Amino acid sequence: MTPAISAQGLTRTFQNFTAVDHIDLEVAPGQFFGFLGPNGAGKSTTIKMLTGLLGPTSGSIRIMGNDLFANPLEVKRQIGVVPEGMALFGKLTATEYLEFVGQMYGLDRQTTRQRAAELLEFMDLANEPKKLLADYSHGMGKKLALAAAVIHGPKVLFLDEPFEGVDAVAAGTLKSMLQGMIGRGATIFLTSHVLEIVERLCSHIAIIDKGHIVANGSLEELRAGVQAKLQTEQGAQTERLTLEQIFLNVVGKDSAEHTAHEGELSWLS
Ligand SMILES: Nc1ncnc2c1ncn2[C@@H]1O[C@H](COP(=O)(O)OP(=O)(O)OP(=O)(O)O)[C@@H](O)[C@H]1O
């Protein structure tokens, strides 16, 4: 089966610093894929490259079988993106913004209007229709960005920290929307530091650390790998590991290391 997302040897250098270093990624159609890593690991840089927002230094990218660099427009029609720290047009209302985005994707006026209204209702953003985006809170902006990313019904959705700053009610709404999309065959590539949400949503996970992929597989494969390693080290059966425990183990910041740092910052009362 043609992968929904495929990247080979993807690399991005900033001056003499390599943020993403020859990574390979493959995401099958219909997968809910979590892309995890510590701060500064290279997640946003990777998402920006996969969605054509940032040119790679080297490497190749195919989305639904289309080469991103040979067919950028074809790829952009099929994907939706919520990038890191995106700026909205402050002088527009949410409806104007969604209608603008819908028309950019070539939707007709009536479809755009109907979808914009449905999305605003769904995101609980419909009750202040005159509010300008400049006056939106951070979480409201995030919900609107997600609405804009799905208005054209993308087959592949890239989300950089979609739950950041979003309240618990809205997070529940977003989760059910994303699960509904997966149920209808979409592919979702998501970064998030909220590991409980990733554990609940994602079937497959890759972990990037200092620009390198250090784990990649189904959640169960990652769990089995870490569990086997701990069993060898500790000689005892471990309990079923959470994604947080798996993550801490893979990126090498286990509880022992935390304890060792406890004596530091002793000037903090
Ligand atoms: N435009 C840039 N110029 C120079 N360095 C950059 C640039 N963009 C990213 N970097 C560096 O690349 C590395 C990876 O950054 P990136 O934003 O991809 O990390 P991240 O995994 O998304 O982190 P976080 O979880 O903190 O958002 C960091 O060291 C960052 O400082």
Automatic annotation (TrEMBL):
Residue ranges occupied by any ABC transporter domain in the UniProt entry: 5-235
A Pfam family reported for this protein in Swiss-Prot or TrEMBL: ABC_tran
InterPro entries xrefs: AAA+_ATPase, ABC_transporter-like_ATP-bd, ABC_transporter_ATP-binding, P-loop_NTPase
Species in which this protein is naturally found: Granulicella cerasi
SUPFAM superfamilies: P-loop containing nucleoside triphosphate hydrolases (SSF52540)
Lineage: Bacteria, Pseudomonadati, Acidobacteriota, Terriglobia, Terriglobales
Database matches in PROSITE patterns: ABC_TRANSPORTER_2 (PS50893)
Protein name stated in the entry: ABC transporter ATP-binding protein
GO molecular function terms attached to this record: ATP binding
Superkingdom of the organism of origin: Bacteria
Keywords: ATP-binding, Nucleotide-binding, Transport
